[in-house]
Specification:
Distance between the termini: 66 Å
Oligomer: single chain
Largest sheet: 7 strands, mixed
CATH class of the largest domain: Alpha Beta
Number of domains: 2
Helix content: 25-40%
Shape: elongated
Number of strands: 20
Structural class: alpha/beta
CATH topology of the largest domain: Nitrilase/N-carbamoyl-D-aminoacid amidohydrolase
CATH superfamily of the largest domain: Carbon-nitrogen hydrolase
Length: about 600
């Protein structure tokens, strides 16, 4: 049987940490070599981290990444190493180097640059125009980068029609709900249509708003997944690939012969890559300690709540760790949003590194006091109590003359939130804690948050999590733990900001089970008011119009909020970009 052994190194690089990324890559090469692979691969822009954004406008940064590539080059031996980096010719390219025995064998340039959603590659890179196919002994393989594989007639198709039996596709593909299934469906189709094995390698880790979920996999010529890496964790996936099976399938597919005639041979470059010594006798993967081999994990796939929760934990952990913080603090109110953020933080950085800060006012209920204490006990986090009654009274006295003759209104409500924001930032300054904000996507969408108050902080953990999903995540967390780490009453009592007597969120907003579907259709799917009403028979037109107006008017607030983790197909910030100064209004 004609086989090739491949090792996919699913790593978590840090943007700009060239020395650290080189050490990680060199260490992974050494570890992978224990399995005697023919090919070792690393993700897209593994050397620089992804996305490097405007670091790419710094010539020194580009030179330093090229120097880092030369360091990695010196770590290579008989195995061909594919690694993502920034190449410089007359312009710069998102590139993959093929290295072996301390030499650069070839460089592939990404052809299909991404410029939608969170991506902005046209801003930085020139696109490639070569279709190399690498010949290593009796093995022909191609290399592509991320978006290249999403085109049915793209580089992978041309490489396969030119003889490549294996396509290595290196990626930095960020997570959102449902993305994993979409990738697998698409790549299964690509592999089956081209009668080629595709090794899909994705990076993993949090980078500002983005979370990369890893979950690399190998799909065979029939579209079947034969090996799969872990989700949200670094991993090494090693597999022996049956190339003879690819050849046999192609023998029975006369369509390929007709298609290959149409390929202009001057488009294709055959690049020779020396193979491992013919005398090499390799052990079976299971005898070398690699239990997965060609087998796919048959464990039950995670449900949506588990997947989102793990994404939030990884995004929080990496934002805190990669930015040099050790401890975080959270304003705890006795409500469900701050409870979820506290649970995520405890899992991300360890309970001993989390401090909850309870800041009661004259409007804080006994229930909120009791629930906050029970939550802190359940999560085993530290709890500080800093009352704001006297501070609020001092603010009132300072403003008494200016506000004379005017009734109390939302101004006084926002003052309480801003006092709390100030106290959290004071603790952050004094102790070096990162403040995690607790606003969810539903609230951020309609502006139900106080600028310089509860929006004040360094990282917005659940900024892209709708309120109805907040409840589901809390219930999942309790089920996972087998106990109520988040008190049951927090999940059943009506949500309230407790900034005035008997206040409820529904005083200002529709119920969240009504609000969230409207927001999804308007924000994530760009539906018109008329379409939203028609798709939600129980939703009144005036209610929908009011919600949409609140979304539009709150853009200036969102622009000033901390970065938060993207988990939906369209998040605020780098994903959904609307002008603050904007007079256009949709009407029914």
């Amino acid at each position: 049987m004609r086989t090739v052994r491949i090792a996919l190194c699913q790593i978590n690089p840090i943007v700009g940490d060239l020395e650290g990324n080189v050490r990680k890559i060199a260490g992974c090469i050494e570890r992978a070599e224990e399995y005697q692979p023919d090919i070792i691969a690393f993700p897209e822009l593994a050397i620089s981290g992804y996305p490097p954004e405007d670091l790419l406008l710094k010539p020194r940064f580009i030179q330093d990444t090229l120097a880092a590539l030369r360091e990695i080059q010196e770590c290579t031996g008989d195995a061909a190493v594919v690694v993502g980096f920034i190449d410089k010719r007359y312009d710069i390219y998102n590139a993959a180097a093929v290295l072996q025995n301390r030499k650069i064998i070839d460089v592939y340039h990404k052809m299909h640059l991404v410029n939608y959603g969170v991506f902005d590659e046209f801003r930085y890179f020139q696109k490639g125009g070569r279709y190399p196919v690498y010949e290593m002994g009796d093995v022909l393989f191609g290399v592509t980068i991320c978006e290249d594989i999403w085109y049915a007639d793209g580089p992978a198709s041309i490489q396969s029609l030119s003889g490549a039996e294996l396509i290595i596709n290196i990626n930095a593909s960020p997570y959102h709900i449902g993305k994993s299934g979409l990738r697998k469906k698409m790549l299964s189709t690509r592999a089956s249509d081209s009668s080629v094995i595709i090794a899909y390698l994705n990076t993993v880790g949090g980078q500002d708003e983005l979370v990369f979920d890893g979950q690399s996999f190998i799909v065979d010529q029939n579209g079947e997944i034969i090996a799969e890496g872990k989700q949200f964790e670094e991993d090494l996936i090693v597999a022996d690939l049956d190339l003879e099976a690819v050849f046999m399938k192609r023998l029975h597919d006369p369509r390929r012969r007709q298609q290959s005639i149409a390929i202009k041979q001057d488009m294709i470059e055959k690049i020779y890559v020396p193979g491992r010594p013919a005398s090499l006798e390799r052990g079976r993967l299971d005898s070398l300690g690699m239990s997965c081999g060609n087998a796919v994990s048959r464990d039950v796939a995670p449900d949506a709540e588990e997947e989102v929760y793990r994404a939030l934990v990884l995004g929080t952990k990496d934002y805190v760790r990669k930015n040099g913080f050790a401890n975080v603090c959270i304003g705890l109110s006795g409500g469900i949003d701050s409870a979820l953020v506290a649970a995520i933080a405890a899992d991300a950085v360890g309970a001993k590194n989390v401090t909850g800060v309870f800041m009661p006012s004259q409007y804080t209920s006994q229930e909120s006091r009791d629930d906050t204490k029970e939550l802190a006990r359940g999560l085993d986090i530290k709890l500080l109590e800093v009352p704001i009654v006297s501070v609020f009274e001092a603010y009132g006295e300072a403003l008494r003359q200016s506000f004379e003759g005017m009734a109390a209104d939302i101004t006084e409500e926002n003052l309480q939130a801003r006092i709390r924001g100030n106290l959290l930032m004071a603790l952050s300054n004094k102790f070096g804690w990162l403040v995690l904000t607790t606003g969810n996507k539903s609230e951020m969408s309609v502006g139900y948050a106080t600028l310089y108050g509860d929006m004040a902080g360094g990282f917005a953990v659940i900024k892209d999590v709708p309120k109805t999903l907040v409840y589901r995540l809390c219930r999942w967390k309790n089920m996972k733990e087998g106990r109520a780490v988040i008190p049951e009453r927090i999940m059943t009592k009506p949500p309230t900001a407790e900034l005035k007597p008997d206040q409820k969120d529904t005083d200002t907003l529709p119920p969240y089970e009504v609000l969230d579907p409207i927001l999804k259709l308007y924000i994530e799917e760009d539906k018109s008011l008329e379409e939203i009403v028609s798709l939600n028979p129980g939703c009144r037109a005036d209610n929908t119009e009011r919600v949409v107006r609140m979304v539009d008017f709150s853009e200036y607030k969102r622009r000033q909020s901390p970065p938060g983790i993207k988990i939906t197909p369209r998040a605020f910030g780098r994903d959904r970009r609307f002008p603050i100064t904007n007079k256009y209004r949709d009407k029914i």
